[in-house]
Please model this.
Amino acid sequence: MENTTTVVDNPYGLQALWAQGDFVARGTLTILVLMSLFTWYIMLMKILDQRKLMQSVKLAEQKFWTANSIKDAIERLPKGDPLRGIAEDGLRASSHHEGRLTDRIDFHEWVTMSLQRSSEAVSSNLQSGMAVLATVGSTAPFVGLFGTVWGIYHALVAIGVSGQASIDKVAGPVGEALIMTAIGLAVAVPAVMGYNWLIRRNKGVQTSLNDFVADLHALLVGGARVASPAAAVAAAAAPVKK
Model:
């Protein structure tokens, strides 16, 4: 005797929610989908930005600090490299401290301002998009809850109009409305976890960036890299060319 399996379509699934929902339900679901897409896109781009900057730091350690002059060191870094941009701005500032600037701003402060401005631009790029993740993580559950409340309201109105309060008439529409809350949580959890993880990684990347800027500042102002004793001895023996 063969067992016969009957497949019953679920009339209260996500597909039914979209097909039977009004413009508010569809709009809420669309907003949640867009939030999820933005979340994953931003997390992917931030990971790539962090990896690019860490690779730049490693490349600078291998090529930049082993050069005989700052100009040669800059040429060793590829064009478009963020650390090359910082070094170019620092060299440009150290080469154009002249005229009335010498009376109003000393050389140390002038170079510091230039390097700080360049490094802050790189840091700002690292932080871009993080506010979106924080916003999605904090608002997505409430957006989903709004969709649930709206769905339950319409379900109760439909039940009241039909005059039927059986379990199949109540449980189906209410369960369908609760899908919105589940979607909201599914959107919010990755956003919150991604935000915390990226913030922690940003701190490490920022530390490496600050170390490079501090060493570059010491090289431009004092002629030696403070962080590396060997480099400081070599720089003291051979003055840096500008």
About this structure: Confidence is low (pLDDT under 50) at residues 229-242. The longest helix spans residues 167-222. DSSP finds nine helices and no strands in the chain.
